[in-house]
Amino acid sequence: MILRRIRENIDAIFDQDPAARSRLEVVLCYPGFHAVTLHQLSHMLWTHDFYTLARCVSHFSRVWTGIEIHPGATLGRRVFIDHGMGVVVGETTIIGDDVTIYQGVTLGAGAAARMGSATRGTKRHPTLGNGVVVGSGAEIQGDIMVGDNVRIASGSILLKDVPDNSVVVGVPGRVIYRDGQKVKDEVPDIEAEAIKSLKDKVRKLEKQLQSVTACIESLQLSTPVAPVNEEEEAPTSPTSTDPVDVFLHGAGI
Length: 253
Description:
By secondary structure, the protein is an alpha/beta fold. The chain has helices at residues 2-16, 23-29, 31-47, 51-65, 190-221, 243-248; strands at 68-69, 74-75, 80-81, 88-89, 94-95, 100-101, 106-108, 127-128, 133-134, 139-141, 145-146, 151-152, 157-158, 166-169, 174-178, 181-182.
């Protein structure tokens, strides 16, 4: 069974990664494959109560690959950790089948980690469903459930459950698409609102600068110029095609 799962992992990486030129290259040169394979050994030792030996195997894997997977974590089939450097997977994490994780991802305990031994033996880390893709640098914290076929954007910080077939972006992470349909934000994105407010202010200052410049030129030419009405510049609406607004609402995800 272990050999079958190893073969599955090799085939999955070769099929998903366009940079892979051969299965031999996957076996020899992919740290994500090495980390997942060594985790199978460390997890088997962990489930048979060889805790220290299991941690030694996982520590060796961390030193060799740059990927830290606690031996207590449960990984499904065909998990692909692409590049992988800096990935951290906590003890009670559960990862489903066909999950893709990019570099710098943390599947951590969140606030429970600050409670020390009081939470030992409890579920502290996230559960990822099948077909989840976690972008580079994303953090998923706490005992939360991420549904099947969820896409989590790079750099997002996810602190609450996510339903199936969703796209998550931002800090804190919020669902912007569900089942292919755009979702209205239930919680205001303070960062996005601040950026848009600053953008509107810059536009008003540009209008004022144009008005002052035009007045100076009119004095030099003795030609009257109508003042610019600042209120003509309306704030950017959520439905505009302004590139800043489009970016803040998840463009490219």
